[in-house]
Amino acid sequence: MKLTGTRATKFLDSPPSDIIGVLLFGPDRGLVKSRSAALSQKFMPNDDAFGTTILTADDLSGDPARLADEMSALSLLGDDRLVRLRLDHERNGAAISKLIKQFDTEPEKAEAKLIIEAGDMTPRSAIRKACEAAGSFASIGCYAASTKDLAQQIKSTLSDLNIGINPDALEHWLPLLEGDHALAANEIEKMGLFKGYGKAAGAVVSMSDIRAVAAGGQSASIDTIVMQTLSGDVEGADSSYRRAMSGKVNPVSVLIGLQRHLLRLIEASMSLESGENMGQALRSLRPPVFAMQEELFRQHLSIWPLTVLRRALLQSQKAEREIKTAASPTEAIMGRLILALASYAGKRT
Fold first, then answer.
1. Alpha carbon distance, N-terminus to C-terminus of the chain
2. N or C, where is the chain less crowded by C-beta within 10 Å?
3. C-alpha to C-alpha distance for 281 and 22, rounded to whole angstroms
4. Where does 222-348 sit in CATH, by number?
5. pLDDT at 201
């Protein structure tokens, strides 16, 4: 069965006893891992390490029958058993989907629960289709929270600790946390610890706190990378991107920041083509362009025609699809996109 939204949340909070297995997949691998860990606790409340078997896709490549054997094996002590299968490819997809169908037809033969952890899967994935069609298996997608939801998560978690956050600090922090649920949760917890868990009255997270504590806060900002890229500063963009990667900034966060800026440029460019002047086009954007970035924003509009902006957005979406592929070289894919866009802009300046 396919579960989304509140149905997925309720299922994860209290999985039905007749469920044999759960597929957790999606681009947010941090959310996949955290949900898998929580679900493991539901299936194995006694945290019995001897009752849990962890397999990888490569384990099955060397021994295709391994998963079936583990799922059918009886516990020596009669306790619950759990199999966690971590996939970084689907070369055994047909065999796994066949096994899912067999256990769905004959659930009494399953002696263990199954949790499958995977990256993004298309609707054509054999494993995903098998889980969505089965009554004893569930399929749950794990996607990155929206910027609005992430901002609410930050403010709500900090508020529970009696800690506030300045608007500029929140805006700077958000791109560093986007795309990875586990990273966001860990970073918010780390910030709470840094601020003394709100023991001091009036504790507020500031920009200096973000720079001092946040992962990637000390390295090149995402805005800097995006602005240098679309301004045609090839060396600057490449250098800033490398520093950001050294500072453990998530490449997906850079991609999101780039796409957001491209969409704003496209919106402004369409306003100009409809007859509005530059001032009107910029004022119509929500949120408005920062005063310190307005000159650069105007420069980008002069460098990038609307048709080319749309092609650049398509290229970024192609990179996003490549990044979502299991075991993809995320950092390299994003680096190539930055160099390609910066090279184009450099020839136009």
1. 54
2. C
3. 48
4. 1.20.272.10
5. 86
